[in-house]
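Suppose you are handed only two things: the residues of a chain and a line of SMILES describing magnesium ion. What would the bound structure be? This form records exactly that question and the answer produced for it, so the two can be stored side by side and reused later without any lookup.

QUESTION INPUTS
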Amino acid sequence: MSVSDRYSIRMEQLCYSIGGRKILEDFDFCLERSVNHTILGVSGAGKTTILKLLLGLLDPDSGRVFLGDLCITGLPESRFIEPRKRIAIVFQGGALFDSMTVGENVGYRLFEENRLSAREIQSVVTEKLSFVGVEAALNLYPSELSGGMKKRVAIARALAADPDYIFFDEPTTGLDPIGVYNICNLMQRLQAEGKTTLMVTHDLNTAFATSQRFTFLHQARMLFEGNEVQLKASSIPEVRDFLQPTESSLFV
Ligand SMILES: Nc1ncnc2c1ncn2[C@@H]1O[C@H](COP(=O)(O)OP(=O)(O)OP(=O)(O)O)[C@@H](O)[C@H]1O
Ligand SMILES: [Mg+2]
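ANSWER OUTPUT
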């Protein structure tokens, strides 16, 4: 096994609260290279928060986050720029810059890095847009795109930096069935190219279509972790309820 295969992104015994409310408590999580993973949980459970903590965008109250061998907790951002470059995130809603064209959005990070010539950046932008099937939108602004196109442009932007890991924050929410199918297909093609995906979602079909490992977050705790067969066979009431809500799950 090479060093690169052993590289993992993980959190250990992580606690995080907002305004005195516990969002995560003693949370352990490990994303292994080449094991595509989905974190499931109801709306507001803390899924986006987990992604932000893994990227070092938020500081935990206690516990540690590792990118490979490096513990980034407590480090200034300048000390983990390199390992974080291996990870890209497609934010919930896309988070495109409204004042930039699609092409400028996708090439933004490369322009900032100032490593490649304008011509080389143009070629990366075209290649990534064509990978996600929206090359015709190159000169349009985000406000001129449908929700599904925005998500695909956001994926192209994440791919521009050629990451090993891609985090997807609810990539299928709000899309029609064809849009959902497109995103699933894109994720599978990225995985076939050697990218490892981590998705947070409550969309079970997309989770099963794209992931080998599942974590279930419930009331700040990790209630389940395992593969699809184990998840579907779980006897944990909250997991069963999430997979197949019944009348007893109705809000009283
Ligand atoms: N900046 C903030 N200030 C106050 N509360 C916050 C803030 N950010 C998140 N929260 C709260 O923390 C909890 C977890 O938020 P988070 O966005 O991680 O949930 P989520 O699982 O991603 O939800 P969703 O599925 O709706 O995207 C939520 O209950 C939210 O209300
Ligand atoms: Mg969220």
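WHAT STANDS OUT: The first helix runs from residue 3 to 6. The pocket of magnesium ion (ligand 2) is lined by residues 47-48, 92, 169-170 (CB under 6 Å).
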